[in-house]
Amino acid sequence: MGGKILLANIDVPGIRGFDVYRETGGYKSVEKALKEMTPAMVNTEVTKSGLRGRGGAGFPTGLKWSFLDRKTDRPRYLVCNADESEPGTFKDRYLMQHLPHLLIEGLIISSYALGVNTCYIYIRGEFKYLVGILEHAILEARDHGFLGERILGTDYSLKIFVHPGAGAYICGEETALLESLEGKRGNPRIKPPFPAFKGLYGCPTVVNNVETLAAVGPIIVMGGEEYAKFGKGKSTGTKLISACGNINKPGVYEIEMGLPVEDFIYGAAYCGGIKGDKYLKAVIPGGSSVPILPADLMLSTAKGERRLMTYESLADGDFATGTMLGSGGFIVFDEDACIVRNTWNLAHFYRHESCGQCSPCREGTGWMEKVLFRIEHGQGKLSDIDLLVRISKNIEGNTICPLGDAAAWPVASAIRHFRREFEFHVEHPEAVKHINHGALPVSALP
Amino acid sequence: MNKMMEQNNIVNHRQFAPEGRMVAFTPEVLQKVRQLIQRYPEGQQKSALLPVLHIAQEELGGYLSVDVMDYVATLLGIEPIEVYEVATFYSMFYLDKMGNYVIEVCRTGPCSISGGEKIMEHLQEVLRVKPGETTPDGLFTLKEVECLGSCGTGPVMQVNTGYYEHLTPGRVDRILEELKENANNNKPDGSSWVEKFC
Ligand SMILES: Cc1cc2nc3c(=O)[nH]c(=O)nc-3n(C[C@H](O)[C@H](O)[C@H](O)COP(=O)(O)O)c2cc1C
Ligand code: SF4
Ligand code: FES
After folding, report:
1. Is A331 within 8 Å of chain B by CB?
2. Which of A72, A152, A277, B45 is 20 to 30 A from A303 in CA distance terms?
3. How many domains does chain A have?
4. Do A129 and B189 touch (CB under 8 A)?
5. ipTM of the complex model
6. What is the CATH number of the domain that holds A269?
7. What are the mean pLDDT values of chain A's consecutive 10-residue runs (446 residues total)?
8. In the CATH scheme, what is the homologous superfamily, with its name and number, of domain B101-184?
9. In angstroms, rounded to a whole number, what is the distance separating the alpha carbons of residues A380 and B136?
10. For residues A82 and A125, is the Cβ–Cβ distance under 8 A?
11. Alpha helix (H) ranges present in A127-255?
């Protein structure tokens, strides 16, 4: 299997269609789960597998499922989060485009385990072309008896619907997503109550990422314990990493967790090294919201250990010297990349995407963008750098949803690790105006 | 059934919108919209708002005018304000008349470091418009958007929701030529929202 679980059959011609997918062993997990297992047994396998949410937070999936309120007689819902809007992340898109049935299969078993009869796939509206692919896969599954009334002759019934969003990063946050699915603005809800008790239409709801749910099929086929043998420590299994930036081979890679970061960046099977044989300057390893790390801290931890692609290793040293695995959106910067410009660019993103409900986020993201613009364009003051740190601290932890933190961390971490570069921008306004839009080559650093 | 007839009456009435434009889906599209509404539990028809607004924007003039939004509100049995609120929140909904082709260039970090800024500059030069503006012939509207989930194949832009990846200035020129040649077909990705839903 070569360490591949989700993408093991990605190269089989026609794998997007039902027949080929089925020939390669597809939907076996549904037969197994519905005919040989109780919902509780499916839950147990998922818990044993150690699978953690692939949407960003890495919360154990089995544990999340165990919170679902099963005592009520209200309907329960499963919502698949296919909003994928975190800059640097494009793995769910790849999975849905090439292996739509892997997702549908995962949705069926997960719904069965959760006692859900209606499941929605909330997909970002920009992925319009995928809506057709998913709808077609759903029809095929239904025509072959894997969806609809009395699946495979059992008394279990399930409907899956695709629901498009319409352009709003915040709708990836699970409660904003539920609001949006109810036909409202994507304003996150105050938690608690958590969706497990009061989610879609006020009913118990589980929200999981595409990649998380796609892993459930293989877990049921091979068994939770077998899946947990992949990976390292509490980071079990495999993870899809979408790699982009200044590398030779951008793309989506399935890695077994525990792969050294260095092998991922320089290995021929993965990123294939830095474009143009330049030096590695920095990496944002988990989507734009996680802290940026300079090359040395990216390749080894502050303790001098090799940095591995696991939740734990990437977080080693906390935010002082570590970062997060996040969504697996791996953004690589070469020696010519301007950290200030990139930080300003991302600040613009978060200002644009803030829903505006909480003042620290609404006002703070705007201020950070303005101050960063000033510095990037050679009009900054040295005190602006500390001002940015202060603003980011005032946002962090003071908002309804984690978008506030997501906006604060990139700024705080860029200053933490690249303060010299911010100072250089302030001290050499003429230079930054003319050199490559303000990009500062490492060689120019004092 | 009663409710359905009542709604149909309102629909007929709304056809004579203030602008004198006919605001109503064709029977086929209306059929599809009614099926979409059925996907959500009884009493939750408002859930269909986003998909229906996508269809409305595409079928009824390329943007959401007030009469189009009012029409959608009637179809779903909700207040017009509930539609305005939503239409103003999401970046894919346009409130003003757009060009035949809406060109949306990704400006976010990963695209920016792989050459997205040059693509934007090039488009501004050849179209002679700034982001947010429409060419005088009404053919192209240029816009900036945030990450399109295509960061590994950037720079990237969408034209009326169709993806164009690995852009270079030369490739952009060729795409523009092609679009001009097919100026009457405003669906370069070849399919409409209505067709997407089985
Ligand atoms: C601002 C923001 C954006 C998010 N965007 C996404 C997203 O695009 N896709 C996703 O799966 N999760 C996203 N999340 C995380 C979800 O809130 C949620 O934790 C996740 O869907 C849970 O699924 P998992 O447990 O399978 O990871 C986002 C969170 C925040 C705060
Ligand atoms: S933190 Fe920002 S995005 Fe989240 S609810 Fe508050 S204003 Fe909205
Ligand atoms: S940054 Fe342009 S598609 Fe992600």
Report:
1. yes
2. A277
3. 3
4. yes
5. 0.94
6. 3.10.20.600
7. 85 98 97 97 98 97 97 95 98 98 98 98 97 98 98 97 98 98 98 97 98 98 98 98 98 98 98 96 97 97 97 97 97 94 96 97 97 91 97 96 97 97 91 55 39
8. Glutaredoxin (3.40.30.10)
9. 39
10. no
11. 128-143, 174-181, 210-214, 216-222, 224-228
